[in-house]
Amino acid sequence: MNKKYNILYVDDEISNLNIFKNTFRRNYNIFTAETAQEGIRIMENQNIDLILTDQRMPEMTGVDFLKSIMVKYPHPNRILITAYTDFDALKDAVNEAKIFQYIQKPWEEREIQQVIDSALDMYELKQKNIELTEQLKKNNEELERINKELIEIDRLKFQFLNIISHELRTPLNGLVGAMALFKSKFKSEEFIKYEELFHILEISTQRLEDFLLLAERITAFKAKRYHLQPYSFSIKELVHKTVAALAGKSLEKNIAFEYDLQSGSDCFADKELIEVCIKEVIDNAIKYSCQNSKIIIKTFCQGKNHVLEVIDQGRGFPEIVLKHKYKTFITSGEYSEQGTGLDLALIQLIMEAHNGKLEIDNNTDGGALVRLVF
């Protein structure tokens, strides 16, 4: 044993105390008491690991002594030593004093050594269990504290996002209106000189508008202020509508679309939100695709689920995006030049609201794959 345990032996016969002390003092720190009261005083001043007591003592029986210290000192194991067979005393010792074992007098060194070793082993296990329980309690409290902090940080983050969105909306609307008015003042031949400048302004304001719309939608989902309004609609029709709406962007890069739209039952979901998801996925596919490339769009049913797959031939997702899927505000090299991670975060929130999921990956032959399952 690495630790030298403290053992208390209570017995009104001094000879028994001396024999016990002389026998075990090399292995343990032995404390002896001739009365129960003296034993209690020792326990008040020493950290006792094991208690042995004689049953027959004049002032207080061994069982009564053990019962009297149970509340204040519940952890040390207890051994009752008796010179006769007293079944009532043993029953009380087991049921009320919670003894580990009893030993009959006269005891033998080998026998009592085995009992002491077993009692101390059990005591050590109990102590380790208490320590682990306390550590687990502290860890849980720390995790709870950290979790509360994260929840608060998350709340503040999206509150801040909402404030930014609100504060930028008014000047953005003013900028869009002023630019439209400014364009109307130019004659067609004059406008050609500034066409490129107006194009840059329009793209910049559109990107800002897209960001604000994403921020507002994510904030609404995070604050649980958005309630689904599901009804039946055709995914196939929604895909064609979205591609047509983004035709200008795809024509600029000469991107061709290939369709594999399997007919099936209509989808029952929040059409406006699903349209947002499809628009974001196809828009991103166009944005990150190479010039003169192809985008494949597939729809099919998988059991009770509807699946939409969009496969492009672009540069694919960076490793950091695949590693931290759906994390808001991902910034990494080329990806951060055009995206913040808000689009994937919003799609994930919408999919979760429909008990669905968003899956992203890179194709082995290049390009990205995005799959919506709902």
SSE diagram, text form:
Elements: E1 6-10, H1 14-24, E2 29-33, H2 36-45, E3 50-54, H3 62-68, E4 77-82, H4 87-95, E5 101-104, H5 109-185, H6 188-222, E6 231-233, H7 235-245, H8 247-252, E7 256-261, E8 267-269, H9 271-287, E9 294-302, E10 305-311, H10 319-323, H11 333-338, H12 342-353, E11 357-362, E12 368-373
Parallel strand pairs: 1-2, 1-3, 3-4, 4-5, 7-9
Antiparallel strand pairs: 6-8, 9-10, 10-12, 11-12
Helix pairs in contact: 5-6, 6-12, 7-9, 9-12
Helical stretch count?
12
Low-confidence segments: 329-340
**Helix-strand makeup class:** alpha/beta
User: Architecture of the largest domain, according to CATH?
Assistant: 2-Layer Sandwich
Q: What is the rounded distance between the termini?
A: 62 Å
What is the CATH C-level name of the largest domain? Alpha Beta
Query: How does the overall form come out from the CA principal axes?
Result: rod-shaped
- For the largest sheet, list the strands in their spatial order: 2-1-3-4-5
CATH topology of the largest domain: Heat Shock Protein 90
CATH superfamily of the largest domain: Histidine kinase-like ATPase, C-terminal domain
What labels describe this entry?
Rossmann fold, Helix Hairpins, alpha/beta, 5-stranded parallel sheet, 5-stranded mixed sheet, 374 residues, 3 domains, Heat Shock Protein 90, single chain
Describe this structure in words.
This protein is an alpha/beta fold. The chain folds into 3 domains: 102 residues, Rossmann fold (3-Layer(aba) Sandwich); 76 residues, Helix Hairpins (Orthogonal Bundle); 143 residues, Histidine kinase-like ATPase, C-terminal domain (Heat Shock Protein 90), CATH 3.30.565.10. 55% of the residues lie in helices and 17% in strands. The strands form 3 sheets. A 5-stranded parallel sheet has the order 2-1-3-4-5, with helices on both faces. It is rod-shaped, with a radius of gyration of 39 Å.
